[in-house]
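In this supplementary section we document a worked example of the pipeline. Step one takes a protein sequence of length 400 as its only input; no multiple sequence alignment statistics are reported here. Step two produces a three-dimensional model, which step three serialises into structure tokens for compact storage. The input and output of this example are shown verbatim.
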Amino acid sequence: MTGMTSSARPLLNRRLAEFGTTIFAEMSALALQTGAINLGQGFPDTDGPEEVREAAVRALRDGRGNQYPPGPGVPELRTAVAAHQERRYGLVYDPDTEVLVTAGATEAIAAALLALVEPGDEVVALEPYYDSYAACIAMAGGTRVPVTLRPHFDGGAGFRLDLDELRAAVTDRTRLLLVNTPHNPTGTVLTREELTAIAELAVERDLLVVTDEVYEHLVFDEAEHLPLATFPGMRERTVSIGSAGKTFSFTGWKVGWITAAPGLVSAVRSAKQFLTYVSSGPFQYAVAEALALPESYFTAFRDDMLAKRDLLADGLAEAGFGVFKPAGTYFITTDIRPLGETDGFAFCRALPERAGVVAIPNAVFYDHREEGAPFVRFAFCKQTEVLLEAVKRLQSSLRN
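The serialised model returned by step three reads:
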């Protein structure tokens, strides 16, 4: 009986029963097994600015953050986050009562939902969504209500929010709207019109809003990132989530934050303290310096990613994919139907052997799996030579 239990009840609690190993783990394992280029998981293959890395080394050597940092985050980082929000968006936050440092954006999402959602509450989220959203809603005992972003092939060829569908999704049981812009995986950046409608709905129905804005510095072409907290009536009801990982290419440091009114920060902190308590001590000091980098850094970072977006988008189109060129993030969603394929899961599981490239099936980000079935996501946060090789492999294998 070693290793067995006498109970017939499953070991994993029912709230998490639908969540097994993430698709990212499966596809990354496939990349290792086959030697394929991994354009699946969204992490850069080079480190961020040397001066930021050196700031972390300096903090380690100086003994700053090697022991437990303060629960809300080190004062230097909270001050830097507040300064960033004011400088960029005119949002004024008190570093002492309106900023909370978290173990990446993933913990910020988890802590916010665990704190603000009661069992039975409905949470409206834009589908497709980052997979942790569904798991965190489930852990909080909430009910997720997806509103699907649908592809449009006219002009800009992107995914759009149906505002009538969003309004119809809100019921008397709705507690919270979970909004992600710039949006992963579709690359959509919500417009001023869409955000205005979301804000008006939240105020009218007295809803809380959690906004995941980790790609705020990766917005391209004519798109503009507009924090929901800047809209009328939203400052006091919005929890805004940011992260250092995507902007500074140190995803392993796991430094994120929330900005919100004092009551919301206090509530989220109550949950967060029993998740990680604190994390990333020395890295917090480094990220404080990173947020104060000159504007030239952010511009160069965006321009580099824009060039890589265009390289990969053009290469994927040449390989035969239908391509939705993203207005933000570092992901490209593609349509595999022009290749004669309809099942994204099967396509992605075969692609490492077939073409030596790994991608992610978008259906994993949907409750309505059929809506995402023909779509596949590629990441372009890689070195230019890696993207060129991936494009070469895809074109040679898929066009033959």
